[in-house]
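Colleagues,

For the teaching module next term, I've prepared a clean inverse folding example: a structure given as tokens, and then the sequence designed for it. I'd like students to try predicting residues themselves before seeing the answer, so please don't circulate the second half yet.
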């Protein structure tokens, strides 16, 4: 209950945009690498291959801690909802002048008609009801994306989901 309350409070704080004071230029690749290192043991326990791919430097302007939390949440979901013994790939790239991070898995994915619903607080897909979690993770990801002006894109990974965050290029 305390963890859930803390998550709700954090989402509310993000939504008030009071965290923008911590914005600076950060490298998505470094953050993603730290997240992958943190989740490597959990992935290995499921037999999931967790890897980082893409460009060596992908710069964004934002709150490093919040971006870390959003990526960690997406990687955690990909491992939990991915195919056992499957693969999760975290890709960082600069495309069309925009920094992008994508987290792709080979699990059951999210039906397109549920894309908007998964960002609601406490919302859980039917096939996720018996896995650990409280339905706040993607709410947090959505709040972090809005704060950073990032566009969320969810694509069918056939099988699985490819979740992308398109950030604005950092100010020069």
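(Answer key — instructors only)
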């Amino acid at each position: 209950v305390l963890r859930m309350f803390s998550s709700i409070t954090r989402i509310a704080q993000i939504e008030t945009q009071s965290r923008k004071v911590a914005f600076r230029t950060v490298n998505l690749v470094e953050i993603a690498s730290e997240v992958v290192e943190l989740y490597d043991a959990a992935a290995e326990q499921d037999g999931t291959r967790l890897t980082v791919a893409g460009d060596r430097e992908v710069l964004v302007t934002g709150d490093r801690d919040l971006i870390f939390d959003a990526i960690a949440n997406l990687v955690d979901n990909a491992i939990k909802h991915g195919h056992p013994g499957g693969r999760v790939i975290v890709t960082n790239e600069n495309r069309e002048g925009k920094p992008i991070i994508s987290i792709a898995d080979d699990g059951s994915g999210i039906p397109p008609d549920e894309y908007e619903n998964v960002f609601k607080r406490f919302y859980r897909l039917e096939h996720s009801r018996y896995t650990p979690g409280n339905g706040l993770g993607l709410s947090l990801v959505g709040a972090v994306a809005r704060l950073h002006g990032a566009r969320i894109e969810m694509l069918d990974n056939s099988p699985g989901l490819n979740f992308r965050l398109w950030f604005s290029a950092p100010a020069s």
